[in-house]
What does this fold into?
Amino acid sequence: MIRERLSLLSAPAIEPVGEAEALAHLRISNEDELALLHGHLRAARLMVESWTGRALISQTWRWMLDAWPGQAGSEWWDGVRQGAISAGRARFIEMPKAPLISVSSVTLFNDADQAVVWAAENYFADTASIPGRLVLRNAASAPAPQRAANGLQIDFVCGHGAGPGDVPAPLRQALLMLTAHYFENREVMRDADGGASVLPMGVQALLAPYRIMRL
It folds into this structure.
């Protein structure tokens, strides 16, 4: 199985919902609550991103993998065919966060931990698909890192855009509703069966069309 690790390189410069908009939605006038509100706004955004598999405002991530999908010793399944895809058929990598804006670099490591940047002309970023993909050019061969673990490093930018207006309105409305939910319920909420309530039903209804399920 291919192991992977994600790390955030550059966080969003702003939140999809601003302070003034959140204050108006929650009908808060006491400035003593601002610090708490900012924490809830960030927590709501992280929850929405985690639940949907999407990045809202543009952000940069680093993705480490042991190998290119389909190489010897790795298992890769596209959810359609039976069995692992061979190296000759693994012509793309589906990116872990959507929507994909760009692939900044692809780096390979050898057994001495030396890094070699793979030339950008060997691949292109499929930003039309959701989730996006890093796709090999026809003349390129899948890179083979020499390091046994974390030998393939992909830096990429994802998100709906640089500003709040780039984020779809239902996602922003869900953020406002979830922020209000966190503000009014500051303890763990339970559902009717006694389990922890992750998201209110109204928030889930807004987010459902945008949720990306990975196989």
